[in-house]
């Protein structure tokens, strides 16, 4: 990697009770890079994502973001960091069912104190970019799985985060719909220079990333050979 | 063996010159490996010899491209038979991947390292095909998808094998 990483884990270890989830993971992610984190179920890949995003605090090791250590920051600071600099997309969109598509997308902006009119305007803009124009007023129950997931992607990007964390973003979709979501997600990330950490067990999804790391038994395996 | 049958398929649309057949073959099926003119004409000669095409009237001018080829009833029958038959599935237990894993285990070399290396190579190829899919035509996308699904199947096998290496090692070294 040339230049300083934007997100970095240094010898990160974390156990849940007696069960080790991460056993000394090092990973460095460059600004603008799309990194796929792969591995079998239970390998620790989602735990790694949660540590990198400041959601979980490792037992040992360090997490750095934009040159600053964040694992030793308090919950309030990490929460502010997530709100202001990170976006999230999860397997099941986790849209708020009472809100419309545009309100769901506007949510991160509203939480950051952006005025409602402006927030809704920017949300509509992102819904357009993800081919969702016309669906602004629908509630999540009135959207197909693929549409709901694209709303979730729009919500992930709307606050223009430096890093988008996506945990199995296509896991609940059929392969064609999933690829459509990945195409839109990767294009949006590349257009805006957003760094993406993409957890997936699906090689076809990982193929949209610039490179992949494999997590197995809480460790990152790096092949000796690189293309 | 698909070039003669593919040319028959192209000829079934309409009688054509060798040049037109080569152009359409390269457009739809060549994909970075154009069919040499020599192979087009030698294939058409063999198809004519075997009664699957007729070389129609020779038009004025010089060179082999003056001939127009027409598919015969026998050619159509052969084409139909071929189009109905499934392609022989590859014998999956004799792939190079399997041979390498077993040989690594037999010789005490690191099979996990080999599998990691192979996985990285497969994913690199999948990235290339995904890029082709994103930027290419519908035909490119469909061909890329075919490659992607095959590579994905190999990757699944790689994951499963990685999880079963201890058992496999016992089986091949006992």
Topology:
The complex is a heterodimer of chains A (227) and B (174).
Chain A lengths: L6 E10 L2 E11 L4 E5 L6 H8 L7 E6 L2 E2 L5 H11 E4 L11 H11 L4 H14 L15 H14 L4 E5 L7 H18 L2 E5 L3 H4 L4 E6 L2 E3 L6
Parallel strand pairs in A: 3-8, 3-9, 6-7, 7-8
Antiparallel strand pairs in A: 1-2, 1-4, 4-5, 9-10
Helix pairs in contact in A: 3-4, 3-5, 4-5, 5-6
Chain B lengths: L1 H12 L2 E2 H13 L6 H13 L3 E6 L8 E5 L1 H12 L11 H11 L4 H25 L2 H26 L1 H9 L1
Antiparallel strand pairs in B: 1-3, 2-3
Helix content percent band of chain B:
55-70%
Helix content of chain A: 25-40%
Mean pLDDT of chain A: 92
Helices and strands of chain B: which structural class?
mainly alpha
Secondary structure tally: strands of chain A: 10
Provide the structure class of chain A.
alpha/beta
Largest interface: A-B, 18 and 20 residues
Please describe what this structure looks like:
The complex is a heterodimer of chains A (227) and B (174). With 227 residues, chain A is α/β, with parallel strands linked by helices. Helix content of chain A is 35%, strand content 25%. Chain A has helices at residues 45-52, 75-85, 101-111, 116-129, 145-158, 175-192, 203-206, and strands at residues 7-16, 19-29, 34-38, 60-65, 68-69, 86-89, 163-167, 195-199, 211-216, 219-221. Chain A has a 6-stranded mixed β-sheet with strand order 6-7-8-3-9-10, sandwiched between helices. In chain A, a hairpin with a 2-residue loop joins strand 9 (211-216) and strand 10 (219-221). Chain A is globular and about 45 Å long. Chain A starts with 6 loop residues before the first strand and ends in a 6-residue tail after the last strand. Chain B has a 3-stranded antiparallel β-sheet with strand order 1-3-2. The mean pLDDT of chain B is 86. In chain B, helix 1 (2-13) crosses helix 4 and helix 6 (111-135) packs antiparallel against helix 7 (138-163). Chain B is elongated. By secondary structure, chain B is mainly alpha-helical.
